[in-house]
């Protein structure tokens, strides 16, 4: 998922130096920076490891290391988006998801 990480890093206005100590128990590699007036921390899933469990591990380590995080945005390629009659989701679209109950949470896509 290095393409997503590269895209996220390119959005930074300023990239910060790596001068914050990371605990030995945290295996994530972080890119820190600023977008506008917001401090941002970016991490990527380990190479060749995908899925919700891997994403949960990355986020858990990040929240333990950076205790001031208030919002998280997980970015990736959705390989299992259903073909819904009201939505024409195509590769390259931006989809915002918020699952509730049995509803998968796919909202109206933004066509790129």
Automatic annotation (TrEMBL):
GO biological process, one term: nucleoside metabolic process
Gene Ontology terms for molecular function: catalytic activity
Domain of life: Eukaryota
Alphabetical list of InterPro entries matching this protein: NLR-like, Nucleoside_phosphorylase_sf
Listed name of the protein: Kinesin
Annotated organism of origin: Neurospora tetraspora
């Amino acid at each position: 998922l290095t393409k997503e990480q590269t895209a996220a890093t390119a959005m930074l206005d300023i990239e910060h130096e790596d001068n914050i100590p990371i605990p030995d128990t945290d295996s994530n590699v972080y890119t820190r920076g600023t977008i506008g007036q917001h401090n941002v921390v970016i991490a990527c899933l380990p190479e060749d490891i995908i899925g919700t469990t891997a994403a949960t591990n990355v986020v858990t380590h990040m929240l333990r290391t950076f205790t001031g995080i208030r919002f998280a945005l997980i970015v990736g390629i959705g390989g299992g988006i259903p073909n819904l009659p009201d939505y024409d989701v195509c590769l390259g679209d931006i989809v915002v998801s918020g699952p509730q109950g049995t509803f998968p949470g796919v909202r109206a896509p933004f066509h790129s």
